[in-house]
Amino acid sequence: MPNNFYEKAKELIRHTGYRVTHNRLRTLAILLAEQYALTHREIEERLNVKEHLDRVTLYRVLEWLSKNNLVHKIAGDDRVWRFRVNMELHSHQHAHFICTRCTKVICLNNFRIKSNPSLPLGYLFHEVELTVKGVCAECV
Amino acid sequence: MPNNFYEKAKELIRHTGYRVTHNRLRTLAILLAEQYALTHREIEERLNVKEHLDRVTLYRVLEWLSKNNLVHKIAGDDRVWRFRVNMELHSHQHAHFICTRCTKVICLNNFRIKSNPSLPLGYLFHEVELTVKGVCAECV
DNA sequence: AATAATATGCAACTTAGTTGCATTTAATTA
DNA sequence: TAATTAAATGCAACTAAGTTGCATATTATT
Ligand SMILES: [Mn+2]
Ligand SMILES: [Mn+2]
Ligand SMILES: [Zn+2]
Ligand SMILES: [Zn+2]
């Protein structure tokens, strides 16, 4: 599967009804190929191997992909956003694992979260976010 | 209770066995007086009303308080750390609430988290972090 | 009061992310 | 296919949280 990812990206982006641009395709293709969440930096490096993409544009592309539910972003303790493509069974609420050694982030899809916690009076519940911290297999 | 907080802070810091400095006392006193988690900025502003404290020193004080388990820090989606004093029943694992409108953070002490999730093979579990997102009473 | 280890202030730095604006490109229409 | 136009892009400048190095001040000890 050489660049099935690019074709898959094209299908997904076309499906949003908005503009199908080269940079959106390239970026999404990279995220489709990855098993874990990538930082803006990591994506930039992978992109620039073939063809340069301005970092500001990449920020805007990632924001766009995020707003259109093609990816989701995850906040880490290192103040850096990580981006992961939304797989079919993936768009629902799920937990994340963060490796405290290499800061790698993976999505825990098998991990259901039961919601509706009791909040102080007058508070409005929206969603619950669960992060598991530990050490990944490569770092043990 | 005028500055019971300063006295309480003195007791807590003396108890660590390390140096009892004016800045540690002032900073901890401010955190003791608050019901929710404060950013470095918010603490700085409160401190500077009475007497200036260098921002770098404050970073170091907060790091010290954190390492000595007198406060804990919470990562928000705005890439800013928030600090909250560790109350007696508070040091255990608990959940946090983040207001998506004003970014205020409170600790949900009544909220127990059951741990030991199933992770991929070779992964090491350390702890689980639960964040509830919604809108606080003042922002509804 | 003298000592020594630690805390502090200040300047300079790092880095993720944002903003404004002129130019280019994707999609629509003629 | 060429003209049109709204949205996407590149670039420079900016913002803001947090860090580092080093000289000076303060705490705790003798
Ligand atoms: Mn995920
Ligand atoms: Mn808390
Ligand atoms: Zn790891
Ligand atoms: Zn609020």
Which sequence of strands runs across the widest sheet of chain A? 1-3-2
Structural class of chain A: alpha+beta
Number of DSSP strand runs of chain A:
6
Strand % of chain A is 15-25%
* Uncertain residue ranges of chain A: none
Cα-based radius of gyration of chain A, to the nearest Å: 16 Å
**Which architecture of chain A per CATH?**
Orthogonal Bundle
Report the oligomer.
homodimer
| CATH level 3 topology of chain A | Arc Repressor Mutant, subunit A
The H/E string of chain A reads HHEHHEEEEE
Mean pLDDT of chain A: 90
- Kindly report how far apart the N and C termini of chain A lie: 31 Å
Largest interface: A-B, 33 and 33 residues
Tell me what you see in this structure.
The first copy, chain A, has one domain (4-134): Arc Repressor Mutant, subunit A (Orthogonal Bundle), CATH 1.10.10. The first copy, chain A, is globular, with a radius of gyration of 16 Å. In chain A, helix 1 (4-16) packs across helix 2 (22-32) and helix 2 packs across helix 4. Chain A has helices spanning 4-16, 22-32, 40-50, 55-67, and strands at residues 38-39, 71-75, 81-85, 95-99, 105-108, 124-135. Chain A has 4 helices and 6 strands, in the order ααβααβββββ. The site of one zinc ion has 8 residues of chain A, from loops. The first copy, chain A, binds a DNA duplex (30 and 30 nucleotides) through residues 18-24, 39-41, 53-57, 59-61, 64, 79-81.
